[in-house]
Amino acid sequence: MKLFGYQLPAMSSLILWGILWEIVGQVEFTFFIPPLSAIFATLLEIGPTPVFLKALADTGYAFFVGTFSAIAIGIPVGILMGKNRLLDELLLPWVNMFLSAPLTALVPVLMVLFGFGMKSIIITTALFAIWIIVLNSRAGVMQINRSLVEMARSFGASPKDAFFKIYFWAALPEILGGVRIGFIRAVKGVIIGQLLISIVGFGALFELYSSNFLMKHFWAVLIVLFTIAFIIAEFLAHLERKVEYYAARR
Amino acid sequence: MNDSVSNVDNAVTVRNVNKTYGDVEALRDMSLDFPRGQLTSLLGPSGCGKTTLLKIIAGLLPATSGEVSVNDKPVTGPGPDRAFVFQDFALLPWANVLRNVAFGLELRGVDKSEREAIAETYIGNVGLSGFEKSYPHELSGGMRQRVGLARALSVDAEVLLMDEPFSAVDEQTRRKFQEDLLNLVKNENKTFIFVTHSIEEAVYVSDQVALLLARPSRVSEVIRPEGFRHKDVNSIRRDSEYLDIVDRIWASLRTYVE
Asked: What CATH fold (topology level) applies to the domain B3-81+158-256?
């Protein structure tokens, strides 16, 4: 955006919102919104503490193991669904159902099945992320140019070659889009998991701070979480732009 | 004119091939011979099954009944004796020209340095030297089809199957391609099967034109232009035999055009 002829840096509107927040905080409008500056001061204060670092490590671990599993399972399943009609008919209703289902309601079932520990949190995270990855990979394969597939066959491509050299690359723009949305959903998944299953990680901090009305601490953790999620999403959007040159011409 | 067909060594033979899609009969009892080292066009109105026949020869589609053989071996699927040139080029948009041209060899397990050396040669032959690192979206339609052609040539198959290869390029480029194709047929010892819907193009480039008619799809006539085949590329279009054959084919086809 341009203002008075000057090119504003990306996301400069955040500065405006930050100022507004600071004002609302300074006039002590509500205890729920402390000044932004006080929140950052708190963040610097609790950031280096072992409690916070432990929470960050726990959350990060569950998040990355969960999303990694979702990607490792979701992409091949989605590609195979796009290639194989039978598999598609079998799995699509389930994928669509889980995509829109309130997964939070499933968490107690997962606790019964997998216990009250890290395992259930990881599975919850993966469950939040996987469906959109499957659907997007499938959509990417469905729109593939038929003559690329025929070309590969006519030159004697093995099914493995076709999978890794044609289908995966042709579907890559959609796959990356799915992974990006999957990551965003996984952030939700990991926090819900930590709140409901066992009180660890950031979930525990949210619980602790909000029940004690420590609003500055609460917001500090939330901002850290938002920032991490935002950076990951932006990184994936950057990767998507790298394959954009061929997304429109397959 | 057709006496020479007997005793000719055929690279590809099609015998009584039928193809149905559900209730739709795409090909009925089709038989055709493709002499070795020559260019045969499949010419006909849309819906006459010419691309279907080409894909059956390529092994990309199974015939419902009948037999196709290449060098007397029945076709059961794609094989290294045939290479395909696609109407829409079918290039990998994420790979540069060099990798695209070498892709057929890559799929056949030729190692990287060897296949790139072969690809370089053919990139030069089709006049694309200097574009090795370009991506398909940076090339014009004509250049993209040169890449498709180089890819098909680099696997050194005996039979080249071309599915309306020049229909997506502009008219000037198309004329240049047709001249180049004549030289290619002369210099490479390959059998070409060329699908087109352009009468002039078919007569211009072919040693043999198979005229296909639709509903039911069948070979109505096989025409072998001979008088002007060894003439200079520039005088073919003024040759009286060329013009007669074009007229004759149009007379057969015009009833099929609404």
From this structure: Rossmann fold (3.40.50)
Nearest chain A residue to B61 by CA: give it. Answer: A150
Domain A36-247: state its class.
mainly alpha
Contact A157 B80 (CB under 8 A): no
Note whether A245 contacts B90, CB cutoff 8 Å: no
- Per DSSP (E only), the strands in chain A are 2-3, 6-7
Report CB contact under 8 Å: B84, A151: yes
pLDDT in tens, chain A (250 residues): 677 777 777 677 888 888 888 888 888 777 778 888 888 888 888 888 888 888 888 888 888 999 999 999 999 999 999 888 899 999 999 998 888 888 888 888 888 888 888 888 899 899 999 999 999 999 999 988 888 999 999 998 888 888 889 988 988 888 989 999 998 888 888 888 888 876 777 877 888 888 888 888 888 888 888 888 888 888 888 888 887 777 666 5
Q: Do B87 and A154 touch (CB under 8 A)?
A: no
| pLDDT band, very low/low/confident/very high, at B47 (cuts 50, 70, 90) | confident
For residue B24, the distance in angstroms to the closest alpha carbon of chain A comes to: 21
Q: What is the pLDDT of residues B245-254, one digit of tens each?
A: 888 888 888 8
Handedness of CA A204, A205, A207, A208 (dihedral sign): positive
Are residues A150 and B87, on separate chains, in Cβ contact within 8 Å? no
B20 forms beta bridges with: B25
pLDDT, tens only, A148-166: 999 999 998 888 888 889 9
* Domains in chain B: boundaries: 3-81+158-256, 91-156
* Cα–Cα distance measured from residue B197 to residue B212, given in angstroms and rounded to the nearest whole number: 10
Tokens of B188: 């490479």
Residue B203, C-beta contacts closer than 8 angstroms, at least 6 positions apart: B209, B223, B225, B242, B245, B246, B249
Q: CB distance A154–B84 less than 8 Å?
A: yes
Sign of torsion over alpha carbons B36, B145, A143, B132: positive
Domain spans of chain A, in order of start: 36-247
Of the candidates A148, A152, A172, the beta carbon closest to that of B107 is on A152
How far does B128 lie from chain A, in Å, by closest CA? 21
Q: Does A160 touch chain B (CB under 8 A)?
A: no
Read off the tokens for A68.
């990694």
In the stretch 105-144 of chain B, residues with CB closer than 8 A to chain A read 106-108, 135-137
